[in-house]
Amino acid sequence: MSQSHPGSSEVSRLELIAQGQDFAPVVHDSVYQEEKVLEIKNFNLWYGDKQALFNINMPIPRGQVTALVGPSGCGKSTLLRCVNRMNDLIDTVRIHGDIYLNDQSICDPGVDVIELRKRMGMVFQKPNPFPMSIFENVVYPLRIDGERSRSVLEGVCEHSLKGAAIWSEVKDRLHESGLSLSGGQQQRLCIARAIASEPEVLLLDEPCSALDPIATGKIEDLIRELRGEYSILIVTHNMQQASRISDYTAFMYLGRLVEYGPTVDMFTKPKLSETNAYVTGRFG
Ligand SMILES: Nc1ncnc2c1ncn2[C@@H]1O[C@H](COP(=O)(O)OP(=O)(O)OP(=O)(O)O)[C@@H](O)[C@H]1O
């Protein structure tokens, strides 16, 4: 383990986890009162022989922002990637358990993964626009679905760029390369591409980690605006960011869920001292 540890008064449960002992996470009652869009159930994952996720049980509320936080290597990105079956691309991965989208299994071998990924827009740490025009970047998901109507494509392009709060900055240069934009603009372009296929869930894997504070502020404003229309699951290292933009926060440690509750409670009156130590920066 590379992370530093909290003081001895906070260490007990985390030590038990580090020793591989079973641990019952603390999930606040209000999590269960929300309507759920996703449900992660008894979910375990191995990379080869190494177990990276241990019996994760988490409902994810619909139309809200849920932040996954925890020290480096605790499994946040692994869990996020399971939600759109990106881990299928890694040969050594083995899972046990399931994840449900609107009560339907996404792990079932019969699931059409391409269709699933259309329902789960994903945005990565580093903006990854395609080497094509801004317009073509946004309408890419429709193009691969065979959409040819210019008016449909133009309508979706404008709607998605407006939704990603970048329309006014690019509306006169739609045919310039997406790579000509600044890093923050590229990330909003990627969000526009993610919402062009009208997903139900947006998965954001540290979407601001490569951005400066001003670009970060714009993405955070955007996440707040998209809340409600989309259910958002975001991985972040930045505790201030989690407290600013999320409705719910899940604290993970060494592949296990430790505490999960409303963000305001997780940051002001968490039930576990370990959570308090982490969110206040005393370890991690
Ligand atoms: N492709 C892979 N093959 C083998 N092990 C992996 C792979 N990806 C991740 N792991 C391991 O799984 C564990 C969880 O990694 P993961 O990247 O999900 O954590 P994280 O919490 O997102 O970390 P970070 O905050 O540093 O991005 C780590 O021990 C990591 O080394």
UniProtKB/TrEMBL annotation:
SMART domains: AAA. Keywords: ATP-binding, Cell inner membrane, Cell membrane, Membrane, Nucleotide-binding, Phosphate transport, Translocase, Transport. GO terms for cellular component: membrane. Residues 38-279 form the ABC transporter domain. The keyword Membrane applies. PROSITE patterns: ABC_TRANSPORTER_1, ABC_TRANSPORTER_2. GO terms for biological process: phosphate ion transmembrane transport. Pfam families: ABC_tran (PF00005). GO terms for molecular function: ATP binding; ATP hydrolysis activity; phosphate transmembrane transporter activity. It comes from the Bacteria. This is Phosphate ABC transporter ATP-binding protein. It comes from Blastopirellula marina.
